[in-house]
Design a protein that fits this description.
The complex is a heterodimer of chains A (168) and B (238). With 168 residues, chain A is mainly α. Chain A folds into two domains: 92 residues, Rna Polymerase Sigma Factor, Chain: A; 75 residues, Winged helix-like DNA-binding domain superfamily/Winged helix DNA-binding domain (Arc Repressor Mutant, subunit A, Orthogonal Bundle). Chain A contains eight helices and no strands. Chain A is globular. The termini of chain A are far apart. With 238 residues, chain B is α+β, with helices and mostly antiparallel strands. Chain B has two domains: 51 residues; 152 residues, no CATH class. Chain B is 41% helix and 16% strand. A five-stranded antiparallel beta sheet of chain B has the order 1-2-3-4-5. In chain B, helix 2 crosses helix 3 and helix 5 packs across helix 7. Classes of the chains: A mainly alpha (168), B alpha+beta (238). Chains A and B meet through helix 1, helix 2, helix 3, helix 4 and helix 5 of A and helix 1, helix 3, helix 4, strand 2 and helix 7 of B.
Chain lengths: 168, 238
């Protein structure tokens, strides 16, 4: 049965707060962040990790995969709302109900959602989580140069959407 | 502004620009107000993104998650959209049985059978030619109904389709992949027919979990868009 070493378990426990924040920045919702974090932990416990794996980086990688899986499910639900049977919008607060800060968060989250998945992941890890390019590259399993260009493109697009010179 | 400038500014903002290049950029920033303004705007957007997620409690971990990790051998919680995936193992048994129902669907144009198409030929024809849909069914001449739900590229380099199939009151959910001109079912599971029954069951519940699990494990990316799928159908999935 897959298992974690005690050291890996301790590292993961210490990293859970950061992971929760990562989940929140990806999903933009507290409830979804909790579910994504739960899914991440369940996957790690179910599949374990190599003995020599860096537990924190491994966990971010698993979290990324779980989120991409969730995006697939969302894509299906958005394309086939009758199949899902739930009108998510009915549970959304109106714009009037949102405080200014919450509205800004909504605007930023909406802008982030317009980014390609790879760009969003890279930007989230570096700009929000404070990871270095090298750390993000290791988590996303791509070269450092790829991280650099993805983040630059993400920022350029965000400037166009929510920057001071955007049309909105 | 060229693309390279955005990359330089972005690296500069992250402290990832080598010292010599950073110094050269600083000198350009002094001389170029437009470049400077772009950097300031990039910095402001970055700060806005950080602020949006830097809220109290954002790193608060639910006790159930911490407890789960601390006592890894305790039972799993049993609700929530992700937690439903825990049902995948049980549903896999259903899937294994399902494979016996439709082990091989042959492309009607490439098969060697003659005369009346077999049941599996009929299903294959729908997967080959019908677009995915949210409602309604493709009726088969043998009385069954099929609804293609989505299409996706697999990591194995094939095209796959998720579908619903109704047969004598039972509904199955499955995934078939196209290889060598034939559609082959990869997973098939019992499923609640959409729109039937008074109790809502979330996507991923019960039998659907095994299909979701299969897609998660094999899909190369997000499902195809409507236009992409239509284009593939027109090109006979080539």
């Amino acid at each position: 049965m897959p298992s974690l070493s005690e050291l890996q378990r301790e590292v993961l426990l210490a990293e859970l707060g950061g992971l929760r924040k990562f989940c929140y920045s990806l999903t933009g919702s507290a409830a979804d962040a909790d579910d994504l974090l739960q899914a991440t932990v369940e996957r790690i416990l179910e599949k374990g990790m190599p003995e020599d794996a860096h537990a924190a980086k491994w966990a971010y990688r698993v979290c990324r995969n779980a989120w991409i899986d969730e995006l697939r499910s969302r894509e299906v639900r958005h394309r086939y709302p009758m199949e899902a049977g739930v009108d998510d919008m009915s549970h959304s607060p109106s714009a009037e109900q949102l405080a200014v800060g919450e509205r800004d968060m909504e605007a930023v989250a909406a802008a982030l959602e317009q980014l390609p998945v790879d760009q969003r992941l890279s930007l989230t890890l570096v700009a929000i989580e404070g990871k270095t390019y090298a750390e993000a590259a290791e988590i996303l399993e791509v070269p450092v140069g790829t991280i650099m260009s993805r983040i630059a493109r993400a920022r350029k697009q965000l400037m166009a959407i929510i920057g001071s010179h955007s049309n909105e | 502004m060229v693309e390279k400038d955005y990359e330089l500014l972005s690296q500069f903002l992250d402290g990832e620009l080598p010292a010599a290049e950073a110094q050269a950029l600083r000198e350009r920033l002094i001389a170029d107000p437009r470049l400077r303004a772009t950097l300031e705007e990039m910095r402001a957007v970055d700060q806005r993104v950080r602020n949006a997620f830097d809220i109290p409690g954002v790193d608060t971990v639910p006790e159930t998650v911490t407890a789960r990790l601390q006592g890894a051998h305790t039972n799993r919680p049993a609700s929530g959209p992700y937690r439903a995936r825990g049902l995948a193992v049980a549903a896999a048994l259903v899937a294994a049985a399902g494979l016996l129902l439709a082990p091989q669907w042959r492309d009607s144009s490439g098969g060697h059978s003659t005369g009346t198409p077999s049941a599996d030929d009929l299903l294959a024809q729908v997967l080959e030619h019908a677009p995915s849909r949210a409602e309604g069914w493709e009726g088969l001449t043998d009385g069954r109904q099929v609804r293609p739900v989505l299409s996706f590229a697999s990591k194995e380099g094939t095209w796959c389709r998720e579908f619903l199939l109704t047969e004598t009151g039972a509904t199955f959910r499955g995934v078939a992949c196209r290889s060598g001109g034939s559609w082959r079912t990869e997973v098939l599971s019992d499923a609640l027919r959409p729109g039937v029954g008074s109790v809502y069951r979330p996507a991923g519940a019960a039998g659907a979990a095994v299909v979701e699990s299969y897609i998660n494990a094999h899909a190369d990316s997000i499902p195809l868009g409507v236009e992409e799928e239509a284009d593939l159908i027109n090109r006979n999935w080539q």
